[in-house]
Structures are given as C-alpha cells and as structure tokens.
Input
Amino acid sequence: MLKRFLLPPTILAWKRPPPSSMLAVEAKNHTVWAELENLKRQFPLLDYLRQHHWTPRQVGSRPEFVGLCPLHAEKNPSFYVNASKNLFYCHGCGRGGDLISFAQFYFGLSFRETIVHLKHELGLTPASPADLLEQAVAFYQTELRGHS
Output
C-alpha cells in the first residue's frame, strides 16, 4: 500500500501536442511581444526621460546615469538608468522596469493605455478601422476552428 503513493503520477496528456487554437494564441502573443520590443527599441528610455526634462549625470564611464526620480519628490539622486539595457530603477521608491512600466507609473495609466500613449508620442498612427476589423475577423476565424 505504501508503494502506491511513491510512484509518480502518469499523465498522458503531457505527451499530446497542444491544440491548434493554443498554437494560434502563442503566435498572436509572439506578435504582440515583438511589437512591444520594437516600440521599446524605437524609443530608448534615456531619450524618453530627457524629453520629459529629466537631467541625468553619467556614473563613471559606464552607460549608466543617475538623477532625481521623476516618480516621487526627493532631494538626493536615486533614480538610475542603464542605457545599454534600457532599464531604470529608483532606490528611493523601489520602482523599476523598462519604458512601458515607467510610463505606466509616471502617467498612472493601464498597460493598454500606456501602449496607446507611447505610440501617440512616437507618432505611430493607430490602425484604421478596416484593418482592425480584418484583424478581428482573422482572430475569430482561427478561434472557431479550434472550438466546436
């Protein structure tokens, strides 16, 4: 009776390939991820902060900069930006991340609102209603094939 509890469970579902609808979702997520990475590449965090009047000073010879945190009031610089990694961290308020998370904190927006805001600031025009409708139709056609 004790041996029954020591055997690992057998789950045959692990060996089956994922359904086609899951593959479509993974492909869609990959596309969204690539779009976000492209947005961050087009708009480096350091340049974005300078456009919003952040005055940094370089730390040594590395591509790292420090200045007052734009997310909270402070007198001593504790806001660090690593230009090569395109990341920030504030030792005062404990917030950190990339361009998208900075804009979320700074403007108090949701993730989707932040993406729209950044695209607007970058001058990227949103898709036309016809393009959006075409994307929605393609998405639902893919989903309908995977569900009876």
The first helix runs from residue 2 to 6. Residues 9-17, 19-23 have pLDDT under 50 and may be disordered. The two ends are 43 Å apart (CA to CA).
